[in-house]
Amino acid sequence: MVWINSVIQGVMLGGLYALFAAGLSLMFGVMRFVNIAHGDFIVVGAYLIVTFIVSWGLHPAIGVAMVLLLVACAGYLNQRVLLNRVLGKDILPPILVTFGMSIIIQNGLLELYSADSQKLQTGWLETTSLQVADKLAIGLLPALMFLTALGVIAMLQFIFYRTPLGRMLRATSDDPEIVPLMGGRNAHTFALATGLASLVVGIAGIWLAMKTNFDPAAGPARLLFAFEAVIIGGLGNIWGTLLGGIILGVAQTIGAQIDAGVQILAGHLAFLLVLVIRPTGLFPKVSH
Amino acid sequence: MTMIAHTQSKPVLQFGASVLILGGALLVLASAPFWAGRAELRLLMEALSYLALAQMWNLLAGYTGLVSVGQQAFVGLGGYLFFALAIFGGIGVVPALILSAFGTAIIAIPTGWLAFRLNGAYFAIGTWVIAEVYRLGVAQVSALGGGSGISLPVDIARSLAEGRAEREMVMYYIAFAIGTASVLLVWGILKSRWGLAMTAIRDSELAAETIGVNTRRLKFSVYVLTAGFTALAGGFLFLQKLRITPDAAFSVNDWTAFVLFIVVIGGLGTIEGPIIGTILFFALRQVAADWGTWYLMLMGAIAIGVMLMDKRGIWGWIAARTGWSLFPTRRLL
């Protein structure tokens, strides 16, 4: 029963990792762009929600709305003003610029909030759980987190394949040189993609704040989890990313069950194992 | 970059100037124990180690296009192997450093085999994951102190030389050897057949393959070689610190982010770039020592600024305007 419990916990945790990964996957899909500061952006989201709700005492709904609005706008502007200028065939400039951002964000947060770890207390949400069977309960908070991941991924899938914005994103992803000839504006489309990805980053940040302790240096590890979920699931497959997150989450909770010290290591090893067996991920949609 | 011909430059005069500058710099560095104080000497040792890290990262990213953000794996492995060999193997300091470099190069073969399954930006983050695996793995080894690390026994450091001044002099010359050897190694490689193949890859990987360059094998060899040399510098850095912990040994910020900034600010794909970048990095660190985290943010901002203004970095910008080259590697047909 202990093992079934860890698997269930792992699946829920996988939802969080899928949330981490969705934004990364979206940006790579549209712009072939890996954001080294992705994890740090998630942590910024977590700090913002704590600041709004705990420090400023705002109503949670208003706090959430403000975080989402703020990060989505910041993402759009960041892409429009800065990141668009380093996009191109050369992979180094975007890596370097986002590495620079990562260092700036980590040290900026350290300066503003100190190195103390934080967590958003959620009261009854945290303590309520659904009794599934004897000795087997699912916490309300993890369950909601997993449902959020399902919802976000369904939303992205819908936007991508059922809306004019999605058509534009897919067209720009397929051939960024032809789209401007048809009257599309790449700079704007790329910025919209990052804005949308940042919205998901905001959601991920809020769940990070509720689920675990975090500190200014927590970003890089979240980037790696996100990256692993994307690769395990297979490039360009957003539902695959959810599955990748679940595999990662389950590997971690089973690792933790064996020895608390090897939780993270077990996740990384699961990722490397997939890399050995299937370098293109388990369910690849596009090949690169 | 350096190999683009600038016909208007005067090679003879420039050759004289290069010899003068390089000879002068070598003389100043070689005589440092006789003019520098303890603090300056320590700073120079660290700078020379960073120069080696920067040259290696530059060889990898600037010439073969392999952008790794996981080089801390090899700094950490070099450091830990050195500590293990010196403490448990009872091997002398210098042989232990060299052995740990070779040992790390051997570990880099399976590591590279894994990392090379990913391309481009994915390769970059994949190398980072692998470095994390080594960090978490080492933290599980209780003989090496687990997560809290291990110190180098005093008598091992003492085995280098009797007095403190002599010991520091020996340490300095080890660093001097590592720093200058890294420059010479990269220069030698660029002038060899490998260098020719790398230039071909840099200009067009597809064209290089069609004329018979085995690009994968070349990249893999460079990856393993840079891993070994990076480990040598890593071993020395932790000999200087006398203590190693998993977090310090496998720090992405210390051993990769700053090295990246050094290379990119100085000039990627040039031998001079990492030298200029290292000098700037340490000069800035001395000036901004009291600024704490603001200094790190400033470094990040400068690196972003360089990418936005001129991707070639400081030396790339100078070379493009003047045609200067301290280390001539170009071939005139």
Describe this structure in words.
The complex is a heterodimer of chains A (288) and B (333). The model of chain A has no long low-confidence stretch (mean pLDDT 91). Chain A starts with a helix and ends in an 11-residue tail after the last helix. Chain A has a two-stranded antiparallel sheet with strand order 1-2. In chain A, helix 6 runs antiparallel to helix 8 (186-211) and helix 9 (219-233) packs parallel to helix 11 (263-277). Chain A has helices at 2-31, 38-55, 60-81, 92-113, 124-127, 140-162, 164-174, 186-211, 219-233, 238-258, 263-277; strands at 129-133, 136-139. Chain A has 288 residues and is mainly alpha-helical. The longest helix of chain A is centred in the first third of the chain and has 30 residues, at 2-31. In chain A, strand 1 and strand 2 form a beta hairpin. Chain A has one domain: ABC transporter involved in vitamin B12 uptake, BtuC (Orthogonal Bundle), CATH 1.10.3470. Chain A is globular. Chain B has 333 residues and is mostly helical. Chain B has a single domain (12-322), classed as ABC transporter involved in vitamin B12 uptake, BtuC. Chain B has 16 helices and two strands. Chain B has helices spanning 11-30, 32-35, 38-64, 72-87, 93-115, 120-139, 154-158, 164-191, 193-203, 205-210, 215-241, 246-249, 252-266, 272-287, 293-309, 313-322, and strands at 150-151, 243-244. In chain B, helix 8 (164-191) packs across helix 9. The longest helix of chain B is centred in the middle third of the chain and has 28 residues, at 164-191. Mean pLDDT of chain B is 90; it is low at 5-10. Chain A binds chain B through residues 28, 32-34, 36, 82, 85-86, 90-97, 99-104, 107-108, 110-111, 220-221, 223-224, 227-228, 231, 261-262, 264-265, 268-269, 271-272, 275-276, 279, 288, and chain B through 61, 67, 69, 114, 117-122, 124-126, 128-130, 132-133, 136-137, 139-140, 252-253, 257, 260-261, 264, 268, 293-294, 296-297, 299-301, 303-304, 307-308, 311.
